[in-house]
Write a structure and sequence with these properties.
With 312 residues, the protein is of the alpha/beta class. Helix content is 40%, strand content 14%. The protein has ten helices and eight strands. Strands 1, 2, 3, 4, 5, 6, 7 and 8 form an eight-stranded mixed β-sheet that branches. Helix 1 runs parallel beside helix 2 and helix 1 packs across helix 10. It is globular, with a radius of gyration of 18 Å. The two termini are 31 Å apart.
C-alpha cells in the first residue's frame, strides 16, 4: 500500500498562504461552483487550489479567474449543455451499450463530450487553444492541482505542468462504472476521488496554513431512497468518499498542528433538484445561488476569513 504523501515530510505551514480543496460530487458540481463564487465575492485570494472529480472542474473554473469569477460563470454556462443524453446515460443509451458491448461493458456512458465544452471555455478565457497546468501559479493566478487515480496501481496521480487541463478534468471525473477510464501518458486513469477525495495533503505540502476543505456530498444528512441505478451508484460513492475525506482532514490537521488550520465548508444539500445530470439554467442558477449564500454566511458568521480566529 502506498505511503501517505506527507509520510516523513517536513511541513512549513504559513497561515498567510491560503489553499482551497474541492472534493468529488458528480452532479453536485453546480454546488461547488456556488461555493467558488462565495470565495470570489468575499475577496478570498487562494495561493493554491486543488480538486478531484467534479471538484477538479470547479477548481479549474475558480483558478482561471480568482478575482472576477469569469471561469465560474463560463463553467455554469457550459453545464447547461450537459445532460444524461450527452453523457450517454439515458435508459435507451445504456441498454444499447449493454447489448453491443455485453460482457466487455466498462461503463454506462461517457464523459468525453465535456472535453470540448471545457476546451472552448478555456480558449475564450485564457486565449490558448491548449491550456496546460503551467499557465497557473503566475500573473496573479493560483497554482492549480488536479489529481486522478491510476486504475492499474491504485495510486493517486497528480498531473504535471505540461498536461492538458481539459484531458485531466475528463480523466479525474471518470466515475468508475459510470464513465470509462481514460488513457493518458501510459496510465489508465479514473476518478481522482477513488484514491484521494479531499487532497488536503497537497495544500499542506505547498505551505498553505489556512485551508478550506470544500466537501460537497453526503455529510450525515438524511438521503432519499435511490430512484434508479445511477442515483444508487452516485449516492453510495458519495457516502464512501466523504468518510475518507474526513479522515484525510483529521490527518492533515494533526500533521500541521497549531501552525495551520482547516475550515470544513459543507453547504447543506439534502435534495438536488435535478435527476442525474439533466441540468437546466434555472436549476443551475438556483443551486449556485443557495450554495454561494450559505457559504458566505457560514464563513462570515464563523469568522473563517483568512487571519480570523474562527475554527470549523
Amino acid at each position: 500500500m502506498p505511503e501517505p504523501i506527507l509520510h516523513d515530510r517536513e511541513l512549513a505551514a504559513d497561515r498567510r498562504r491560503v489553499g482551497i480543496s474541492y472534493s468529488g460530487g458528480g452532479p453536485l458540481l453546480i454546488v461547488e461552483l456556488g461555493v467558488a463564487q462565495a470565495f470570489v465575492d468575499l475577496g478570498i485570494r487562494p495561493d493554491v487550489i486543488v480538486g478531484v472529480s467534479a471538484g477538479a472542474i470547479a477548481a479549474a473554473a475558480h483558478a482561471i479567474d480568482p478575482v472576477g469569477g469569469a471561469g465560474i460563470s463560463a463553467a455554469a454556462l457550459g453545464t447547461q449543455q450537459v445532460s444524461n443524453r450527452s453523457l450517454g446515460l439515458t435508459v435507451l443509451q445504456v441498454l444499447g451499450h449493454a447489448i453491443v458491448d455485453r460482457t466487455h461493458l466498462l461503463a454506462l456512458g461517457s464523459n468525453e463530450s465535456i472535453r470540448g465544452l471545457l476546451a472552448d471555455a478555456f480558449h475564450d478565457l485564457a486565449g490558448r487553444d491548449r491550456l496546460t497546468f503551467d499557465y497557473f501559479g503566475r500573473d496573479g493566478r493560483p497554482e492549480l492541482i488536479v489529481k486522478a487515480t491510476d486504475r492499474l496501481t491504485g495510486e493517486s496521480y497528480r498531473f504535471p505542468g505540461d498536461a492538458d487541463v481539459a484531458d485531466a478534468l475528463v480523466a479525474s471525473s471518470a466515475i468508475p462504472g459510470v464513465f470509462p477510464p481514460k488513457a493518458i501518458g501510459g496510465r489508465l486513469l479514473v476518478d481522482g476521488g477513488v484514491a484521494d477525495n479531499q487532497p488536503l495533503s497537497e495544500l499542506a505540502l505547498a505551505g498553505c496554513g489556512t485551508i478550506y476543505a470544500c466537501a460537497i456530498g453526503y455529510d450525515g444528512e438524511l438521503l432519499h431512497a435511490p430512484t434508479n441505478l445511477l442515483d444508487n451508484m452516485t449516492k453510495a460513492f458519495s457516502i464512501a468518499m466523504h468518510a475518507a475525506s474526513r479522515l484525510e482532514q483529521d490527518y492533515v490537521q494533526l500533521r500541521m498542528g497549531r501552525a495551520g488550520i482547516i475550515h470544513h465548508i459543507h453547504p447543506p444539500v439534502v435534495e438536488l433538484p435535478v435527476k442525474g445530470f439533466d441540468f437546466t439554467p434555472d436549476v443551475i442558477a438556483q443551486v449556485m445561488r443557495r450554495a454561494r449564500d450559505d457559504t458566505k454566511a457560514w464563513i462570515t458568521e464563523q469568522q473563517l476569513l483568512p487571519g480570523q480566529s474562527g475554527t470549523a
